[in-house]
Design brief:
This protein is an alpha+beta fold and about 220 residues long. It contains ten helices and five strands, in the order αααααααββαβαββα. It has helices spanning about 10-20, 25-35, 45-55, 55-60, 65-70, 75-100, 105-115, 155-165, 185-200, 220; strands at about 125-130, 135-145, 170-175, 205-210, 215. Strands 2-1-3-4-5 form a five-stranded mixed β-sheet, sandwiched between helices. α2 crosses α3 (about 45-55), α6 (about 75-100) packs antiparallel against α7 (about 105-115) and α8 (about 155-165) packs across α9 (about 185-200). The radius of gyration is 21 Å and the shape is elongated.
Amino acid sequence: MQISALPKSARPREKLIEQGPEALSNAELLAIFLRTGIKGLNAIELAESLLQEQQTLQRLFNASLEEFSALKGLGVAKYTQLQAVLELSRRYLKEECLRETVFQNPTAVRDYLSAQLRGLGHEVFMVLYLDNQNRLIKDEVLFHGTINAASVYPREVVKAALKCHSAAVIFAHNHPSGVAEPSEADKLITKKLQQGLALVDINVLDHLIVAGSHCISFAERGLI
């Protein structure tokens, strides 16, 4: 059945306008993005089929161009549209961080870091540089690869923080394994970074680990 033949209350666009986006299912939201279906499947049915096949939105959204284009009803045009939407979301969340201090809206910081780091197939170590009002000056990915004492250099972190005239920093890195719990290596490098930055009067406010939909805070665990 074509979407136009459905009751008005069951059409994704009309439902979104009347009830708000939070009222829609993942398939209905994805159907609005897809706009059209394929032979034998309307946009909602196609969306349901894609979600069933991919199991999660994250897996669908993190697919490479080759993987994405191989899925039925999708292709290069849809891939570029989706990447644009995801990047706009990341930039929106970054604006939230820039507009307020990190303590006024810690959820925005978590959301932004999760949007930046989840789904990556390799580990990256990111630093948020903050001013003396705990406002974001800039963020930067400093290191790539396994995060341990051998791959994260305190001297480089101190140098970068001083260059930004930071008063405080927040660290973040991802666990591609999906396990958010901090390892002993995570704890060790955090302690070394704290010690190095303390010498130049820069505070370490937190270290966040992003693993899939989970985000663990060292500060909340009492590890900082």
